[in-house]
Design a protein that fits this description.
Layout: H1 13-16, H2 20-27, E1 31-34, E2 46-54, E3 60-69, H3 77-96, E4 101-106, E5 118-122, E6 128-131, H4 133-139, H5 145-148, H6 153-157, H7 161-167, E7 173-176, E8 182-188, H8 200-205, H9 215-222, H10 229-244, H11 249-256, H12 260-270
Antiparallel strand pairs: 1-2, 2-3, 4-5, 4-8, 5-6, 7-8
Helix pairs in contact: 3-9, 10-11, 10-12, 11-12
């Protein structure tokens, strides 16, 4: 591990065979490679999961990889690496954006203020300048500007630029997309007005970082997240959903698209009592 995972080592698929970082470089999408799935026997004891981090131009700016040796992960590595990579990517995009209107949206209102929110950057005339990986997934739009072509706020949100500017006050709004589903969104007038996007808990525990302009600076500004920040973000999301669902665990599971058993295990681990959220 210390030999392979150091600065300057080329982990591309052409040189070292099938690895999670190599697959991400090739496909631009998150990937996991476990044990014997690696091409070479010498790394068959490795388990790795990686996710991409894109910049304002839709290019691959970096890869976040987590690996373990000799045994599988004792947690869901795809969720963890995806959440942290999204946090870094969102902060990088906001830091690089200039005089853009930034729209954060999700289908579930509790997720609008988390790294799982889709981000869209529009210019003064309403043209789409950039979007993050989550927005690319939710809207099924290429993250590379050359692949998606010109696009406007009217094409995506059915809003005129004047309407978008009217919404740029940070309040939570609900909107029906052209494709049909309702989304919850916040719009901010400038990148400087957007709070640092990391885990929800980190936003409340840490002071706002100074503006950064590169991936390295974004990672350093984010710092190594406190060990409990992911847990606190998890707890905050579940509490918000419990409040919206009035303590109904089954409804929370459906809203978050996970099993009810997973929610119960989270509730036990986080010492959250669903009955406290039921109407009295």
């Amino acid at each position: 591990m210390p030999v392979a995972h150091r600065l300057g080592v080329n982990l591309s698929e052409e040189l070292v065979g099938t690895t999670a970082p190599g697959l991400v470089v090739r496909t631009g999408k998150a990937a996991s490679v476990h044990g014997a799935e690696h091409f070479y026997d010498c790394v068959s004891t490795m388990h790795c999961t990686a996710a991409p981090i894109h910049n304002l131009q839709g290019q691959l700016a970096g890869i976040l990889d987590i690996s373990c040796e000799g045994h599988r992960f004792h947690f869901d590595p795809v969720t963890v690496v995806g959440l942290y990579a999204a946090s870094i990517e969102n902060r990088l995009l906001v830091a690089q954006a200039k005089e853009h209107f930034i729209v954060r949206f999700q289908f579930v209102p509790a997720m609008v203020d988390t790294p799982m929110a889709g981000l869209l950057g529009f210019d003064e005339s309403g043209g789409l300048v950039w979007l993050n990986s989550m927005a690319s997934t939710l809207l099924r739009m290429p993250i590379d500007p050359a692949e998606r072509g010109p696009c406007t706020v009217e094409d995506i949100l059915e809003l005129k630029p004047s309407q978008m500017r009217a919404l740029a006050n940070g309040t939570l709004s609900e909107l029906c997309l052209i494709q049909g589903p309702h989304v919850h969104l916040r719009c901010h007038a400038k990148a400087a007005a957007v709070p640092p996007i990391s885990t929800v808990a980190l936003a409340s525990l840490s002071p706002a970082p100074q503006p950064v302009g590169s991936l390295e600076e974004a990672v350093l500004a984010d710092g190594y997240l406190p060990p409990n920040s992911l847990k606190e973000a998890d707890a905050d999301l579940i509490r918000k959903c419990l409040a919206e669902c009035q303590g109904n665990v089954s409804s929370v599971a459906r809203k978050l698209k996970v099993s009810r058993g997973l929610i119960y295990r989270r509730l036990t681990a986080l010492s959250i009592e669903p009955s406290h959220f039921k109407p009295k």
